[in-house]
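Example for tutorial group B:
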């Protein structure tokens, strides 16, 4: 009972619940892709069916980004956060049984993917404003950077623990892995039922979509989020292929050296930013990191040695870490009455970038005889635009509506 009292009375526990919420989002996003080949073998699925799961997951999260921004202030953060984690838990644990009880295993997997996407999408929209609204007296840029770092640690944890679990107990134990990972959102659901939550728009009318789209500052923030997501995922999605093709390692080692190393350095970047955030200009720092991002893409695209290509992947993770938390905090300062609608649209823009970046790399590579380095060179456009937009936003004052 004493612990329940602590949960109810401490905004620090709200922060802890939010950290776990971002770990939940990492589990939701990373666990299914790790199991796609197992799904394909176990249920005799085609590559087209597996690909459609990825597409549908993205589409559902995009839809949730837009819908959540409209309903969250009316329904309340707490109810939606509890619902998000309940749905995510059903989706994750559902992989272990839903495909086996429905007439079509593919439909069962699709149901789980949709449930996961709803839970993860709501988390993406809700968690950042919950942390931003906490009256904890700490620097918001620091809090936001630490929050987003937990997504990175979640990615590393899911990849490492799931890979080691399946290696130790065999691929047939994948259903148990899903059940175990389902504990994470269930625990967080319990925490969000109890912790104190303060709404961003509490006591005032938050800006609606119509107000936001009239703001030039808003559109610069949208450009920044699109280019941030694209800069991050254009490299991240191809990191494993770089490691496997360039170094000739196995799939397991490729995942560990590629996406895992990228996530570790991105998380490290966010922890460093959390330490120095109160003393720096975020947008100037973002421009510096954008320059490092360009260097990382140039290394990957033009290095004649595989090890330098891998170093380019690592440097990219280090360079992009600031973007999401930095731009979210900047948005709260530049548009202080933006409310949940602002965070929802920023998440929407970021997701568009996360899809568009890897797509551009794939299209350009395909047009040049599957030359991945050419595709990555084309992706330099994203950090270049990000630097320009950061400079433009830095000249604009906060807008009060």
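The residue assignment follows.
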């Amino acid at each position: 009972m004493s612990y329940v009292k602590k949960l109810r009375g401490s905004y620090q526990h709200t922060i802890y619940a939010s950290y776990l919420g971002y770990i939940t989002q990492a589990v939701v996003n990373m666990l299914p892709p790790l199991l796609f080949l197992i799904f394909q073998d176990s249920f005799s699925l085609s590559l087209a069916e597996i690909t459609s799961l990825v597409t549908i997951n993205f589409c559902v999260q995009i839809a949730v980004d837009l819908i959540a921004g409209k309903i969250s202030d009316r329904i309340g953060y707490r109810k939606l956060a509890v619902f998000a984690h309940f749905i995510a838990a059903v989706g994750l644990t559902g992989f272990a049984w839903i495909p086996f009880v429905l007439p079509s295993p593919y439909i069962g997997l699709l149901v789980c993917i949709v449930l996961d996407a709803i839970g993860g999408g709501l988390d993406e929209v809700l968690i950042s404003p919950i942390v931003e609204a906490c009256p904890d007296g700490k620097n918001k840029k620091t809090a936001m950077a630490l929050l987003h770092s937990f997504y990175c640690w979640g990615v590393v944890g899911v990849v490492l623990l799931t890979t080691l679990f399946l290696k130790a107990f065999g691929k047939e134990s994948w259903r148990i892995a899903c059940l175990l990972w389902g504990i994470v959102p269930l625990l967080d659901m319990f925490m969000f039922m109890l912790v104190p939550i303060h709404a961003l728009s509490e006591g005032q009318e938050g800006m609606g979509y119509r107000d936001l789209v009239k703001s030039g500052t808003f559109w610069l923030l949208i450009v920044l989020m699109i280019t941030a997501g694209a800069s991050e995922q254009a490299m991240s999605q191809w990191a494993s292929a770089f490691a496997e093709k360039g170094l000739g390692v196995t799939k397991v080692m490729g995942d560990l050296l590629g996406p895992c190393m990228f996530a570790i350095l991105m998380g490290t970047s966010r922890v460093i930013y959390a330490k120095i955030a109160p003393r720096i200009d975020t947008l100037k720092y973002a421009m510096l990191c954008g320059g490092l991002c360009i260097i990382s893409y140039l290394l990957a695209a033009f290095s004649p040695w595989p090890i330098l290509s891998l170093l380019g992947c690592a440097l990219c993770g280090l360079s992009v870490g600031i973007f999401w938390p930095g731009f979210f905090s900047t948005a709260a300062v530049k548009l202080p009455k933006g409310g949940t609608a602002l965070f929802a649209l920023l998440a929407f823009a970021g997701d568009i970038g996360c899809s568009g970046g890897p797509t551009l790399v794939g299209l350009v590579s395909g047009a040049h005889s599957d030359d991945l380095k050419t595709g990555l060179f084309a992706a330099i456009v994203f950090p270049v635009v990000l630097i320009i937009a950061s400079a433009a936003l830095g000249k604009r004052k906060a807008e009060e509506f």
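The CA atoms of residues 145 and 270 lie 5 Å apart. Compare this with the pattern of hydrophobic and polar residues in the output above.
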